[in-house]
Specification:
By secondary structure, the protein is of the alpha+beta class. It has helices spanning 26-34, 36-39, 114-118, 121-139, 151-161, 185-188, 220-237, 248-260, and strands spanning 6-10, 13-22, 46-49, 56-60, 68-76, 80-85, 88-97, 100-108, 167-168, 173-179, 198-203, 207-215. It has eight helices and twelve strands.
Length: 265
């Protein structure tokens, strides 16, 4: 059974929460999330793990020669598997549920500025959705085909989490920030609107994001709605999708949203 990811906070840190109800005993689910041979069927990287508290866990992504190393915090079969990877904490909690199991997964973004880390919530949620669907298929003995169209998955989470919204800073500046994943800057630069205020920022740990700033004008809600539309179209273009202009009712709905909920940065 699939469920939508939720974006929450723990202290100041953003946390993604997902769960799946699986028709398999906890011991079977435990093996699927800890055995490197099983992980290879659904996890996005090759994994080698010392399955003990304090053990090393190593990740190698397809097409990459370098390996990143994390640390196992908890290995308590068949209940909890928690590890730290690039300062993020990933926790898998398995509990019996009738004749199956409930798998609860949390991804706590522990790296860098929480506000910047949170921007990746849309793509990360979409990615874990697919991983957990692939895990469920593996447990059920079914084939799983990776999706090819990621844009609608990510865009829906951006809207659901409010990560597509603009903000008005204390000095009156309008600002939008949008995560663009790991696409190279030279591929993204030609997609930027040919006007002031747009820039790309690349962080080796956070990926690439686009930022837009300008002074607030006389009609801030309308201004925010216009820039919001531009960001939506830019984000789609990075996935090879050509979005049409918003219809007038969509423009008005977003303008009304900003009017009723003035954004503050």
């Amino acid at each position: 059974m699939s469920g939508r990811a939720k974006l929450q906070t723990d202290g100041e840190r953003p946390v993604l929460r997902l769960e799946r109800r699986l028709g398999h005993a906890p011991e079977r689910v435990w093996r699927a999330i800890t055995d490197p041979a099983e992980l290879g069927h659904w996890f996005p990287a090759k994994v080698d793990v010392e399955l003990r508290d304090g053990g090393a866990i190593r990740f190698t992504f397809p097409g990459e020669d370098t390996t990143t190393t994390g640390r196992v915090l908890t290995a308590d079969p068949p209940r909890e598997f928690t590890f730290v990877w690039n300062d993020d904490t990933l926790r898998w909690l398995i509990t019996p549920d009738g004749d199956g199991s409930l798998l609860e997964f949390t991804h706590t973004f522990g790296r860098g500025d929480p506000a910047i880390a949170k921007l990746a919530g849309g793509r990360t949620a979409a990615g874990w959705d697919v991983c957990l669907d692939a895990l469920a298929a593996r447990l059920a003995g079914q084939d799983f085909e990776q999706p090819r169209d990621w844009h609608p998955r990510m865009a829906s989470y951006l809207e659901e989490f409010g990560l597509d919204d603009g903000e008005v800073l204390d000095d009156g500046t309008i600002r939008f920030r949008r995560d663009l994943g790991w696409k190279p800057l030279d591929q993204l630069q030609p997609l930027l609107p040919d006007e002031p205020g747009w820039r790309l920022v690349h962080d080796p740990r956070e990926g690439t994001r686009v930022e837009f700033t300008e002074a607030a004008g006389d009609d801030v809600p309308a201004q925010l709605a216009r820039r919001h539309e531009q960001l939506d179209k830019l984000f789609a273009a990075t996935h090879g999708v050509d979005l049409p202009d918003w219809p007038s009712d969509r423009v008005e709905a977003v303008r009304k949203h900003y009017s009723e909920h003035p954004p503050q940065g």
